[in-house]
Amino acid sequence: MTRVAVGCPDYPSLAARIAAWDEGGEVRFTTRMRPKRADELIGGKLHFIIRHTLVGRVEILRFEDRTDGRLDIVCVAKLERVHPQPKRAHQGWRYLADADAPASAEDGSGVADLPPHLYRELAQLSLI
Length: 128
Description:
This protein is 19% helix and 34% strand. By secondary structure, it is α+β, with helices and mostly antiparallel strands. It has one domain (2-124). β3 and β4 form a beta hairpin.
């Protein structure tokens, strides 16, 4: 699943936001609608888009109904950096197929540390 990280200009600010929202190792993201495929998403990942680029993800633990009629997506409060991947911004969340999900950035290549604009330019030139 993908979601835009509204108000986050870069990966470090997203990591700081998730750390600030950490409640006992969990973080909650509120949405209005329950995903039709919610059962399939448990154990999957919630990917974040910053400046038209997928940059990180957290694991989805469960979905919890709120008293105000909305829904919390409860995730592990550990942000995992991924290889930047171009992705259009959208409202709300969207499904992301496993085959389309970016690889983890823990391969030591340093590609995930590039600024998003530089990564996009290099990708458009087919250099990465």
